Amino acid sequence: MGCRLVPVIAFCPNTTEVHIYKFFTDKWEKLHVLAKHDQIVSGIDWSRSSNKIVTVSHDRNSYVWTQEGQDWVPTLVILKLNRAALCVQWSPKENKFAVGSGAKSVSICYYEQENNWWISKVIRKKHESSVTSVAWHPNNIHLATTSTDGKCRVFSTIIKGVDTRGPQAGASVDWKFGEQIAQLDLSPTWAFGVRWSPSGKTLAYAGHSSMIYFVDDVEGSPAAQNLALRDLPLRDILFVSEKMAIGVGFDCNPLIFAADETGLWSFVRYLDERKVTPSTSKASQLSEALGKLYGQSRQGSSSDTVEPSKPRGGAHENCITCIVPLRKGSESIVKRFSTSGLDGKIVVWDLENHITISK
């Protein structure tokens, strides 16, 4: 799923096509259908400034779509992959994008003005399995990845003639392209949904063992926090501010995480709170008691409280697979975001009506 600014949205309905819809008065109307891929589209990202859409697919291809008048014109990108492309994201400056793949590699794509085409440089021989997600650091050079080998890695993607020294780059320009800056072995299972905080000081990603990891000072001396979840694993993460993050996944309900003044992260609550009718049957009471006991054993001594039973029956009815920020202008704090899931729904959330966002 990709969003530029609501009320315009692009998504793949689990086919080879990408549909673009716009909201008119009281209903959504389909404006365009982008049809170029031969297999299921697995990743979409819509750049905010340049108004370009990049798509990747299991057909191992990528296209950059540029709007010309009323039409969207595709340009093929040479990814140099022999397996499916799985995820994609534009860099902050929108002069590059990264594509994770099932070929145990990441393609860093950029536009070559001389030949008027998009080409790629590939980071190989680092991952031991499929790359599930990619995330750009605010400096436009560092790239974090997660993989089904359970590891989170950070690479340098500096490309001569494309990247220049800037105030945010710092010492990052000393790294060579494809050089591994860090490798985090925190998860014993598949890893998903990596994301940087707005300043780039904190990195978060999720493990399929119902864990979320927050890591500070990745390039220097990494300091990690492991937070065990009571219920089901996460699939994607979004920082809404420096001290607050939203996680989404198999619980079908966004989870709010926050850091206190000492930097300690903890689960706050579900975003989509619902009233649950209390059960009076002995079987239900036993189930609830066992659930609490299970929650205590999972969280151990790291928490003094047990998370409440998982609320059900909210906006989403199946696993949430994607969360996308919706910013206006140069906003540093995310006040709105959208989620999409396996239930075929796209939901737009307004945090100002739910929580107070910590800066």
TrEMBL record:
UniProt keyword list: Actin-binding, Cytoplasm, Cytoskeleton, Repeat, WD repeat
InterPro entries xref list: ARPC1, WD40/YVTN_repeat-like_dom_sf, WD40_repeat_dom_sf, WD40_rpt
PROSITE patterns the record matches: WD_REPEATS_2
Subcellular location: Cytoplasm, Cytoskeleton
Ranges for the WD repeats: 34-65, 124-156
GO biological process: Arp2/3 complex-mediated actin nucleation
Disordered: annotated span: 294-314
Biased composition (Polar residues): 296-306
Predominant location: cytoplasm
Top-level lineage group: Eukaryota
One MF term in the entry's GO annotations: actin binding
GO cellular component, one term: Arp2/3 protein complex
PANTHER family tied to this protein: ACTIN-RELATED PROTEIN 2/3 COMPLEX SUBUNIT 1, ACTIN-RELATED PROTEIN 2_3 COMPLEX SUBUNIT
Record's subunit section: Component of the Arp2/3 complex composed of ARP2, ARP3, ARPC1/p41-ARC, ARPC2/p34-ARC, ARPC3/p21-ARC, ARPC4/p20-ARC and ARPC5/p16-ARC.
UniProt function note: Functions as a component of the Arp2/3 complex which is involved in regulation of actin polymerization and together with an activating nucleation-promoting factor (NPF) mediates the formation of branched actin networks. Arp2/3 complex plays a critical role in the control of cell morphogenesis via the modulation of cell polarity development.
Family note: Belongs to the WD repeat ARPC1 family.
UniProt-recorded name of the protein: Actin-related protein 2/3 complex subunit
Organism the protein comes from: Triticum aestivum (Wheat)
